[in-house]
Write a structure and sequence with these properties.
The chain is 81% helix and 0% strand. With 105 residues, it is mostly helical. Helix 1 runs antiparallel to helix 2 (49-101).
Length: 105
């Protein structure tokens, strides 16, 4: 039985996992950046309406961001688990093939 035709994109899975980790980190840092934005907006011409809208947006987005972050963390975990399972299977198949061929050492 030949397994030469199986091509699992392990490198792509690693890239995806890294990107998901970066997105999660961005979500973690988002609150601090929104506070900096609100401070930068200040009260031009003595009016705080724009700053208030930015704060309202952040408060509304904060809950949604938390939910999305949790889902992305679970997706990253699944990608990592899948990649690990394929790597483990590859080692097992290589070992079995070596034993079957009598090349076990």
């Amino acid at each position: 039985m030949a397994y030469d035709d199986i091509d699992i994109p392990l490198r792509s899975m690693e890239t995806l996992s890294s990107a998901l980790g970066d997105i999660v980190a961005e979500f973690d840092d988002a609150s601090g950046r929104s506070e900096a934005l609100e401070a930068a907006i200040g009260s031009p011409l003595g009016r705080g309406g724009l700053r208030d809208r930015a704060q309202e947006f952040e408060e509304a987005w904060n809950d949604k961001r938390g939910t999305l972050k949790a889902k992305l963390e679970r997706l990253k975990e699944r990608v990592d688990d899948t990649r690990t399972a394929w790597e483990d299977l590859d080692v097992e198949l290589a070992t079995a093939s070596e034993v079957q061929d009598g090349n076990d050492g």
